[in-house]
Amino acid sequence: MKPDWDRLGSEYADSSVLIADVDCTADGDALCQEYEVQGYPTIKYFKDGDAKGEDYQGGRDFDSLKKFVEDELEVKCSVKDPSECSDKEKGYIQKMKGKTAEERASQLARLDGMTGDKMKAELKRWLGQRIRILKQLDEGGDEL
């Protein structure tokens, strides 16, 4: 698995996804305890500010890992260059650009509060997309 993991890390080195590894038998022991890693290898992924992370349950080969990253983790929509954004995302960007920074912060807080709620995968994905858009706008992405 290690060669495929390293290849995945190289492939996403300059992307919105951070691929990293921790050796729980050495210096990473405290970190592994914090994230409740009990078996090795364990793959954790973190989405949209989720501080605890979730255990990855998919295939361990390169193609399976890459598909998961593409489908679930990679951010393709950029407020500064919305060419990769869906029509739905583009509409949301325009709507939120018309709001004040305070209104956007309130919306972000509301959406952040929903991240742990149970919902269908499609709704959870749209929630994450809106959170990422709001964070980009907060970082100055609306200055174009």
The backbone outline, from C-alpha atoms, is globular
What is the gyration radius calculated from CA atoms? 17 Å
Order of helical and strand elements: HHEEHHHH
Secondary structure tally, helices: 6
The assigned structural class equals mainly alpha
Look at the structure and give the mean pLDDT.
Answer: 87
Described by strand count, sense and barrel closure, the largest sheet is:
2 strands, antiparallel
User: How many strand units?
Assistant: 2
Task: Report how far apart the termini are.
Answer: 43 Å
Fraction of residues in H or I helices: 40-55%
**Order of strands in the sheet with the most strands?**
1-2
> What are the segments in which pLDDT stays under 50 over at least 5 consecutive residues?
none
Q: Which range does the strand content fall in?
A: under 5%
Explain this structure to me?
The structure is a single chain. This protein is mainly α and 144 residues long. It is 50% helix and 3% strand. The chain has 6 helices and 2 strands. It has helices spanning 2-11, 29-34, 62-73, 87-97, 101-112, 121-141, and strands at residues 44-45, 54-55. The chain has a two-stranded antiparallel sheet. The protein is globular. The termini are far apart. The mean pLDDT is 87.
SSE order and pairing:
Elements: H1 2-11, H2 29-34, E1 44-45, E2 54-55, H3 62-73, H4 87-97, H5 101-112, H6 121-141
Helix pairs in contact: 4-6, 5-6
